[in-house]
Amino acid sequence: MTISDWADQNRRLSSEASAEPGQWRTSRAEYQRGIMDAITDAGMETVVIMSSSQIGKSESILNMVGYHIDHDPAPIMVVMPTERDAETWSKDRFSPMARDTACLQDKISNPKSRDGNNKILHKRFAGGHLTIVGANAPSGLASRPIRLLLCDEVDRYPFSAGAEGDPVNLARKRTVTFWNRKIVLVSTPTNKGASRIEAAFEESDQRRFWVPCPECGTEQILTWGQVKWEKGETGAHRPDTARYHCAHCDAPWKDETRWGAIAKGHWKAEAPFNGTAGFHLNEIYSPWVRLEAMAKAFLSAHAGGDDTMKTFVNTSLGETWMESGEAPDWQRLYDRREHWPSRALPDGALFLTAGADVQKDRIEVDVWAWGRGLESWLVDHIVIEGGPGDPACWQALTDLLSRTWEHGRGGALPLMKLAIDTGYETSAVYAWARQVGFGQVVPVKGVEGFNRASPVSGPTFVDATIGGKRLRRGARLWTVATATFKSETYRFLRLERPTEEERAAGAVPPPGSLHLPEWVEDEWLKQLVGEQLVSTRTKRGFSKLEWQKLRERNEALDCRVYARAAAWIAGADRWSEKEWHVLEEDLQRGPGLAAPPTQHASAPSHAEGRSQNGWIARRRGSWL
């Protein structure tokens, strides 16, 4: 017996949980048959359902639970986004089903009994039990072995269940002892790149529901682009005229025609089967939604801006939303790489800064050259092996401070500033910064959020622990609003470049243009665009923007942010035309110690600075 067979024979929909109470009929939404029966297919271990709202996925989950309680008893776990959601699902969805479905009434104890077999979040039955947990409760996820795991709305799960890590992976571990385990992941998608359900669907065989046209018989996937409606004489939209138009013959389908065609559809996979069946559906397939209502929702969302449009794309189309601050495609950046002599400075470079990211086994450093208008070039990528526990690693970083880079015009430039992250092995970073001096080295701490009066603030004196001894005001720390500089970096990456013909005619790259050398590798590029700007909701329901990782490694982006902060601290955002001219004159005079052309009130004294020959006094306008 399949789950759809069981539901057609036994399941009754409750009046408080369904708009159509009474006997369940899978034929009411034919696409549900393939989804439910995939659970009873012995060849499928994982089933992924990425869909819009209003397609009946919640009732399908209930059918899966009811089938296993009645026909194939097993330890079952249902995971909801929060513990409160788990209680709500138990009381408002499962309990009415267990009460009104006759075959389940004798399988589960009366909730008023005192034997403890029917609690809100844990219910026992012959041959198994049902546990309902919240993804934010690591103790519930790791409590007991599970054969059937049902994860609902996985895109609303927290990034980590306490300190235990990803809640989906934590729950998966409960199933490893069962050879016949089933894992079901269900959700409406959220943001592209940060969506769990999208990532799982892309790893599946990616099944979509194909529907034959009632007129020409051509099978097709129902997409929003084929929904069309008329406009009145004044240009006003008339959503009441919304029809689905066949992608082949353009025949318009009324709602009744569309529902009849969907009843004759079937699932078709777009990728090879690898043990995971993936299903995707949008609201156009729903027998409970009219196109007029969808058209009205679309027009309202379009008028409301990105926030409301995102809701329509996620909940009506069942697709991920791409934020306006999305990361550029790394392959496009790969194709836009430029040629200049390896590790040399291009013609427009006037000063250098570096960003250093401290990792467990290494320190990664990116050196950026800066020119007028904050035009920038990546000129070096250095990986110092050893990590913060290795003195040789810190010595190599110290040596980097006195290194120079040859300039295309002749001469060479050293580092003006090196910003180093203090987020990992803070005391070791402070100790090194104190040793080399705070003139050239800038310890930084990244903070999230866009509501900052300045992208960089400080310096502030912080206590440092040196050799086990606490030094009050032992280090100078700058606070960097990383979100601001990440957004700026992505904006600079999207700037259009002048063509070869335009360059020949005298065109120059726009201010902020970011240039990447041809020696940079694809892994570095993937790290540079390794985060995504997404819109999330606070606990109070307010919308906020935050950066989320698309991949585990993002050192290139972090180093870019630190190097950009170093340029800000040096004063590049505030230099006048005269000050930029001073840098150009210094470059023409040949190699020397590059330094900010003037001392700004926001910058600290640099009397502690150092170079290979010690700090030297500058000519007129000296900043020392």
From TrEMBL:
Residues 276-573 form the Terminase large subunit GpA endonuclease domain. It holds the Pfam family GpA_ATPase. It comes from Shimia litoralis. Residues 18-267 form the Phage terminase large subunit GpA ATPase domain. InterPro entries: GpA_ATPase, GpA_endonuclease, P-loop_NTPase, Phage_lambda_GpA-like, TFA_Chaperone. GO terms for molecular function: ATP binding; ATP hydrolysis activity; endonuclease activity. This is Phage terminase large subunit family protein. PANTHER family: PROPHAGE TAIL FIBER ASSEMBLY PROTEIN HOMOLOG TFAE-RELATED (PTHR34413:SF2), PROPHAGE TAIL FIBER ASSEMBLY PROTEIN HOMOLOG TFAE-RELATED-RELATED (PTHR34413). Residues 1-26, 589-613 are annotated as: Disordered.
